Amino acid sequence: MQRNLELIMQVETVSLDTVMNVEKYLEPGEIISLMFLLNEPCEKTLEILIAYQRASKIEGNTSNILLNWAIETSKKESWKWLFVDALLTCQLNSVIKKMGIDIRGLKKHILLNQQDYIDPIKKHIYKICENINNNLYIKIKRILYENNDFLLDDHESCEIVFLKLMCKKIFTISSEDLKLEVNVNKLVNVLDQIQELRELSIEMKYLATVNINPSKALCDTPKTSCKQKESTEKNEDTKLHIDDFDETFTLLNQIWIEDINLKLKCD
């Protein structure tokens, strides 16, 4: 409980100034990834990122699109958690450390409590982007053109490509105003045609099923994902128990020392 309170206090120290300072040290590609995860709706995000990508190629990282997002979103109670969740998803651990946030505690909070502040499908699409190299990008470009008559630019980031696909309704992930809409069939069909991305395709289908019908999560989990999850949970449980014992022994030692000091004073 104490650690949870410490983590909450750490995250609550995040401010607009924090976001502004973080943005100064990030690469344009990292900012594009963060904005893909954070900003909605997809049409607005696409417009912002296309303009940003063009400008960053000429001027470098001189824009404040992350800060603008934070200003617009700061009315939401969860905006600080959204921000740190996005940083964690993009594996920007050094940034999180500089912000004074316990990474291990943050991972436990999000993974063990299944507390996703960002849509899990969006996170998975980011994961797909991280696994797409130039050769796979060419394959995706060819398949999309042949199957959907959709032509991609050679120099666009993967996140921008997926935003374009969402805007064209080739696939949809939307939970605005609690009106859930998930349709990733066409995207899955594209991924299924590329051997290197088939495992990610299976995970995508599973996530879409869980989003639509959460009760199917227990019976339809892919075997590979299930084993990985069980292993992770066991490891995390072990770490948690060790941590609990460490905290208990520390507390007992403090009580023992205080008791000795009290007796010495009495004597």
TrEMBL record:
Residues 117-200 form the Caspase-8 second domain. Residues 13-111 form the Caspase-8 N-terminal domain. It holds the Pfam family Dredd_N. This is Uncharacterized protein.
